[in-house]
Amino acid sequence: MIHARGLSRTFAKKRGRQSSEVKAVAGVDLDVEAGEIVGFLGPNGAGKTTTMRMLTTLLAPTAGTATVAGCDLLTDPVGVRRRIGYVSQAGSTAPENRAGEELVSHARLYGVSTADATARGKQLFAELDLDGLWERQPKAMSGGQRRRLDIAMGLVHVPGLVFLDEPTTGLDPQARANLWEHIEALRRDRGTTVFLTTHYLDEADALCDRVLVIDKGSIVASGTPDELKSSVGGDLLTVTSTRAAEVAGRMAGLPGAETARVDGDRVTCRVPAGGAALVALLRDLDAAGIEVTGVESRRPSLDDVFLTVTGRSLRDGEHPAVPEPAAEATR
Ligand SMILES: Nc1ncnc2c1ncn2[C@@H]1O[C@H](COP(=O)(O)OP(=O)(O)OP(=O)(O)O)[C@@H](O)[C@H]1O
């Protein structure tokens, strides 16, 4: 469904008299097969939106090639546009228009008849829990309802491939889980291929068949969430103590332990076998009279994968919640 090779985008940056270049995306290769839900993860400024904007024909690449939904991105951008849906971070609904009318006129742009557009629109409203809101103005909807309306807008012309840019940012946990179900249902009931960006590791874990991690414009890891987690190897020990530096020193002495990270009174360290290491460490700390207030041994999470491949925690650059998706006229 998506096959990109060497996709790149450089932006010119001017500061006063000096001009420089920002390599937003630097030679990305990616493949997404039909029917997959693929998550595109990365910290702020990693190049996710730029890649998505190139793949949806909204931004010209400075280098590289791609086919999207069977059409060549560079020579047949109109073909690409006809076959895809794109839901931007900002959404695409005008706040004053009636939701149903907006949906129908959007589908009309794709050559869908008014009768078909209305029928598809009503079906999408039912599937996306928007029943009863056909006449409602988006400005009078909740954030979750508006986000689901944005998604309906991206689907009303029945694309085989849909791009969702941070579909759940700013939604409360229940609205997020609800939207995950809808996205899963798209694939299950319609065979839709979904390519989405997200800042939420739990979202990628719960929803995506495969995850691609981008950092500084390059793909640094890819695989199923389980594959990525097992690639980290070992278990993570976390000990909380007011004597964190001493705990870190003793953790480093555990067999096979990697360098311990100290963050306030929390010390974390990767070890080959968490259970045995924890018992040995607690005995050692007890003998040394070092009190601890919390201990944990756990399997690696996607954030640990992130930390391993990028040297940073995705949580370090946690995205600020965007409470209200602003209305913006996009395609
Ligand atoms: N129009 C532009 N002009 C100049 N630089 C840009 C432009 N668009 C993006 N960039 C830069 O390119 C890099 C990648 O930006 P991009 O928006 O693709 O990242 P992102 O991973 O989507 O980030 P976020 O998660 O914050 O949305 C950043 O350094 C950004 O500042």
UniProtKB/TrEMBL annotation:
Recorded GO CC terms: plasma membrane
GO molecular function, one term: ATP binding
SMART domains named among the record's database cross-references: AAA
SUPFAM superfamilies assigned to the protein according to its UniProt record, in alphabetical order: P-loop containing nucleoside triphosphate hydrolases
Recorded topology in the membrane: Peripheral membrane protein
GO biological process assignments: response to antibiotic
Gene3D superfamilies, alphabetized: P-loop containing nucleotide triphosphate hydrolases
Cell compartments where the protein resides: Cell membrane
Membership in a protein family: Belongs to the ABC transporter superfamily.
PANTHER family to which the protein is assigned, alphabetical: ABC TRANSPORTER ATP-BINDING PROTEIN, ABC TRANSPORTER ATP-BINDING PROTEIN NATA
Protein name per the record: ABC-2 type transport system ATP-binding protein
Organism: Klenkia soli
